[in-house]
Specification:
The protein is mainly alpha-helical. It is 64% helix and 7% strand. The chain contains twelve helices and five strands.
Amino acid sequence: MKKFLKVVGAIVAVLILAFFALAAYFYFNPELGEEELTPQQVEIQKIYDAIETQTGNINIESIDQITSVVVPIAKQWVTGAFPILAGRTPNSLSVLEQDAFTLKVTEEYANSNMTDDDSLEISVAIERLGGVTFCPDADVFLKYSRGGLYTLEYLHTAIHELLHALTCETTISKTFPAVWEEYFTDYFTIRVLSKNIGMNADIIAISPEGVEIVRHLSRLIGDKELFNIYLTKDGIAFKRLVDNALGRGSYEALYADMDIVFRQSDYTYIENGEGEENGTASNPRVDEAQKRIDARLNPGQRY
């Protein structure tokens, strides 16, 4: 028995020594205990750090913080980037718990006389929304998902929805469809974030591809003209500018492919859950449309 206890004691002693040795090793070599980040993750972390520095390192733990901290910062940043919006305000702005948000937004969409196809798409997409704006009334609803999220998640959404609300027209323009409204809003949201953190924030765009496409259009027709189109929702003027820059008929061809990318890439994501890689999955129709768009905007590029 004594011999057995000695053996057990020796094993325990060896294990304790091994534990302390490993602990000491990782203490003096902390980088070995950390998972190596990809270049993309490093870039995203820099943006998170910059946002936290700019907003006082506040973790959002309640709805009140979104209303009292995030929304005022979002308004300040938006109107600082686009002073012409300074005199405009949303009709209403509400922050709701996740379940209340889903219920309210579903109800609002149902009241907007959508087609059956639209209602099916919306019912799938609502859970993924962080906020929504209903125009022409400019009613904004932001979702409070949970505590512990960094300011960036809520600030990004608030800026995006405020841009929708502050550029709402009294009637919804039939010449400025959803694909342009969303991609323009995403582009100007990233412009606002980048301006205020002092670095390019494209990587955290809702649709980085959409932002890049709108940036190409901005280079062709001018950023001031592009923002004026967004402000007035003048799709006819936008069509004329695109055709003048790229040739007659270019707008219709570009829009047809943009609509494919806008709608089908989004629903590929939904149908595949988290997707195969980083929440996305390949969609051949989208890939081909994206190539045609890139070829029009970058005529010298080969595929």
